[in-house]
């Protein structure tokens, strides 16, 4: 039970850092990140909110991930909802200042990339399932053998191109994120000697299968006792 509590604590700390990184990037006032460009483009095209667009993209990525046999764990589901709630909560507290000049904005942008890398390391390392976007990244890394830096760059570029085509607005931060996110994430993972290819994420399906076996064993023991 203690091990589970530690894992959940690490999971939510990772979510908190990722959420803080998102708010910091937004408050840098240097433009939207690639995924937010896509969300904005979808919201304009379909007539939905950016939040609804984010959920739609997450669900679509999960469907794609299932097709290439990515493990969908509890952490995957929690990521979709928890990160959004945490972002709203951090915004409400106004703990992260809004940039007042370009230099401050650049510093906040770089800090957000580093924070995002550490946050991803913490929650992905729990082996409870990745967020939709990170899960897709890891699956492609494992299947191709290419670096996280390259795969992340390609994914961010794809999101940016689609978002821009749909009418989303790109800025300085967009380019920084596209070129910098993969490098920062690779650097953080290397610093912690974190090899995503050795992860063994526990899917929701495997969790219920295990619980089913445990119930069957308990039933067998009870019948044996009588």
Question: What does the model show?
Answer:
The protein has helices at residues 2-27, 34-47, 50-67, 74-93, 102-124, 132-144, 148-165, 172-191, 204-225. Helix content is 77%, strand content 0%. The protein is mainly α and 226 residues long. The relative contact order is 0.18.
Structural class: mainly alpha
> What number is the mean pLDDT?
82
Q: What distance separates the N and C termini?
A: 30 Å
Whole-number radius of gyration? 19 Å
Q: How many DSSP-defined strands?
A: 0
Oligomer category: single chain
Number of alpha- plus pi-helical segments: 9
* Sheet having the most strands: none
What would the principal axes of the Cα set say about the shape? globular
Work out the helicity level: over 70%
Order of helices and strands: HHHHHHHHH
Low-confidence segments, ≥5 residues, pLDDT <50?
Answer: none
Report the β-strand fraction as a percent range: under 5%
Concise synopsis of the structure shown:
The protein is mainly alpha-helical and 226 residues long. 77% of the residues lie in helices and 0% in strands.
């Amino acid at each position: 039970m203690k091990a589970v509590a530690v894992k959940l604590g690490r999971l939510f700390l990772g979510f908190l850092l990722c959420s803080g990184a998102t708010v910091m990037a937004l408050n840098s006032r240097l433009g939207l990140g690639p995924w937010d460009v896509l969300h904005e483009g979808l919201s304009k095209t379909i007539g939905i909110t950016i939040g609804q667009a984010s959920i739609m993209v997450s669900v679509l990525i999960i469907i794609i991930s299932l097709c290439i046999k990515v493990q969908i764990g509890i952490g995957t589901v929690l990521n979709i909802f928890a990160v959004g709630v945490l972002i709203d909560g951090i915004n409400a507290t106004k703990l992260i200042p809004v940039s007042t000049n370009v230099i401050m904005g650049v510093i906040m942008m770089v800090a957000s990339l580093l924070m995002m890398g550490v946050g991803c390391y913490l929650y992905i390392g729990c082996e409870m399932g990745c967020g939709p976007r990170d899960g897709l990244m890891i699956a492609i890394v494992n299947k191709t053998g290419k670096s996280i830096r390259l795969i992340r760059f390609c994914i961010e570029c794809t999101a940016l191109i689609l978002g821009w085509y749909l009418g989303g607005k790109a800025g300085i931060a967009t380019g920084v994120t596209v070129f910098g996110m993969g490098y920062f994430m690779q650097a953080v993972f290397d610093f912690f000697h974190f090899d995503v290819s050795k992860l063994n994420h526990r899917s929701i399906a495997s969790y219920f299968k295990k619980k089913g076996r445990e119930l069957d064993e308990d039933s067998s023991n009870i019948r044996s006792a009588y």
